[in-house]
Write a structure and sequence with these properties.
Shape: elongated
Oligomer: single chain
Number of strands: 2
Strand content: under 5%
Distance between the termini: 29 Å
Helix content: 25-40%
Order of helices and strands: EHHEHH
Structural class: mainly alpha
Largest sheet: 2 strands, parallel
Number of helices: 4
Amino acid sequence: MTAEATPHHIALHTGLMAPYDSNYKMKPPLRASEDAEAVIAGLASGAVDAIATDHAPHAGDDKMQEFEKCPFGIIGLETAVGTALEVLLHPGGWG
């Protein structure tokens, strides 16, 4: 069995979200900070095998509409390397 995590599920959590901000609408959705910490622990232990971008950007006018109507997706390619290095080189850096 293999598992992967995305940069946004490592670096972001629901405590950082602005209410109904469509930039944070993704599948699977963001969870609590404890869940992001568990994903990081999974990467450190080897239980999570890879960081995959799940890069799914949308044009601004597609995302800037009612939360319920806008598409799921978030950028990931631009943050993947920096997030991975932060997790590997500075554990606990997001506190």
